[in-house]
Amino acid sequence: MHITNHDITLTIDQLYRQSSRQLFATLVRLLGDFDLAEEALHEAFRAAIEKWPRQGIPENPHAWLVSAGRFKAIDGIRRNQRFTAWDEAEEQAENIADETPTWDVLQEQIMLEDDALRLVFTCCHPSLAFDAQVALTLREVCGLTTEEIASAFLLPAPTLAQRIVRAKSKIRDARIPYQVPDATELPARLSSVLRVIYLVFNEGYSASSGDMLTRGDLSNEAIRLARLLRELLPDQAEIMGLLALMLLHESRRAARVNLQNDLVPLDEQDRSLWNAELIAEGCALAEQALRTRQFGTYSLQAAISAVHAEASTSADTDWLQIVGLYDALFRLEPSSIVALNHAVAIAMRDGPAAGLALVNDLLQEESLQKYHLAHAAQADMYRRLARYQEAQFAYEQALALTKQGAEQRFLQKRIAEMCGLLAEN
Fold this sequence. Notes:
21 helices; 0% strand; mainly alpha
């Protein structure tokens, strides 16, 4: 079959979209520098655009791109030697690993995935502040632009850019290695990595920026990274738990919003739209994680999601089991957010009056007074008790505290409903 230049261009474009961040991770390992690797990646793809139409697509395109990027970086260092000492430039060039991959496709994929994990652990190094870990992971592992990340976290782009620059400088100056930590360091490092991966997932699933509400690429990237971690540590319960939790959330993506991109509450979702394959995998992983008896908060959250997923209708939900799981979760993580979710479960098991008493007590805490979902939960319980004026006020408080467009529209709809019910009465 004759391959046209158009076909080659499409292939290069597909490679960039699907593999550029994995290739970047390998170049970071080979070159030892984020910025040099980024430049080398773009030079490699530029070389592919120039050469592949004449030479044809190489048998191993990933290896070709890695090799091209490496050579472009060496050429660049030597070309810029007039700005640095000759010995320093030559030493930097010679220190770049001489690795021209010749492996088959399977081994090549293993190489790329291993390098992706190395990059994740580097970006999540404990010497970096957590906000820097998140920003660096989103930029370097997931490939978001600085502007996208800044928008997602409601920060000025220059502020976010400086955060990333400082993190890269710290990695370079402290000579933080691009590697997965050894067995003695891994447990302490793992919690930070899992936390960042889950934040990346949530930024794609229910983003802090309304424009990113359905960034499925971010959620898929987080799931992919969790799968890689599980291959590295197949018996680690919290990796199973986090992967299960993300799969179960992801299974509901198609039902979370309607055609107008408005939020649909869990109890009103069309469950025929839920992804049965993801649910089956997530439930199996959650059960496996709990059986280890070494589970933590992600595993318990996954178990709660699994109970929801296994109910054929909202009315069939086993709220007794969910309350018990929240009790266990609160013992591991006695936070206000867990207590709020526990109160919501109590309201579903024992009625809205029981839940409302708990939520009203929790709203005495300053942190929850600024949390829109606490007011939304209170409002929903007032609504179910037909206390519409109090419900309206609570919904208005929730509305004032959220900037997500879909959530704002949902709350505005609820407020309008309360106004209508008050007018009828």
